[in-house]
Amino acid sequence: MFFLCASLTIYGQNIVRDTTIFKEHQVVFEQMDYITHTKGIKIFREFRGDTSRIEIYADPYWISSLVTNSDYSDYLKYLKNNSTSEKYNDALLKETLLNESVQGLTITLREYITNQKYSNYPVLGLNWYQAQNYCDWKTSIVNNELQQAKLPIEKSFRIPKQIEIESAKRFIDINSPRIAKIDSTYDTDEIIDFSKRINEWTSEAFVELTYLNKISGKEESDKIVIFRKEFKANTFEEKKNGYSTIGFRLVQTYRTVKNSE
User: N or C: which end of the chain has fewer CB within 10 A?
Assistant: First the structure.
């Protein structure tokens, strides 16, 4: 058997990679889980007193744990050193949110994002556009590293669909933080318990005419569906607003099996 190997430094680690390993980059370096599920799952929805259950399919995909304060801090440092001041300022949490209390903790959002104790907790307070910009940056950074190593580039990182978060729950503990997969000695109980309270951005637009009978990916919509862990039904919020109760994670489509409809 022929093995194509490459030696490089990535995230400060000197490594030699066997690129014949199935999607080794996501497994080892991005700490993503592969979800094979293509079975239709019924999503409960409610809007203005009407209810429905619609069946949606998820193509096979990779999914991360929630993006952390530490992850986002790395992004901000990169923008500050390598981008315009406008892009950096656009990525910052809105000042009006920083004095809000963080649900489940007796601190403000300002303390939450600056205290090292919470560096591996989910980043909160970002609006949908800021989360999507992070996904675009992540795609660029990872693919640049892979190109430099003369390795195949990955597909784009993006915000998951609600069905992808729901599907992942059937295979993995979606509240388990990335650090737990790297360092088993790290005390993760508090992080996992906290993550169970965090709602999540999805990539699914809210369109009133279609909401109860199919998904919508219309980019022009100003509202987006929120994956709410405390309710069976998913609701929606304004894309432009940040919320101290909402985080996000990354996904990559592996291959398209069926259109999610």
Answer: N
Distance from C-alpha of 181 to C-alpha of 166, rounded to nearest angstrom: 21
Average pLDDT over residues 3-30: 46
Task: Answer whether residue 27 shows pLDDT above 70.
Answer: no
Residues 6+ apart with CB under 8 A from 130: 90, 91, 242
Residue 211 banded pLDDT, cuts 50, 70, 90: confident
Q: Where are the domains of the chain?
A: 5-253
The residue length of the chain stands at 261
Q: Is 229 helix (H, G, I), strand (E, B) or coil?
A: coil
CA gap 228, 23 in Å, rounded: 30
**Is it the case that residue 146 has pLDDT exceeding 90?**
no
* 166 φ, ψ (degrees, to nearest 5): -65, -40
Residue 83 structure tokens: 């981008």
∠ CA 106-110-114, nearest 5°, is: 100
What is the domain class of 5-253 according to CATH? alpha beta
Return the bridge partners of 199, or none.
246
Please determine, for residue 14, whether its predicted confidence score (pLDDT) is greater than 90: no
The half-sphere exposure of 95 on its side-chain side, counting CA atoms within 13 A, is 1
Largest CA distance in the chain: 61
| Contact call for residues 198 and 40 (beta carbons, < 8 A) | no
The predicted-structure confidence for 42-62, as pLDDT tens digits, reads as follows: 888 888 889 988 888 878 889
Q: Name the least confident of 106-115, 140-149, 161-170, 181-190.
A: 181-190
Side-chain-facing half-sphere of 126: CA atoms under 13 Å: 31
| Burial (0-12, 13-18, 19+ Cβ within 10 Å), 109 | buried
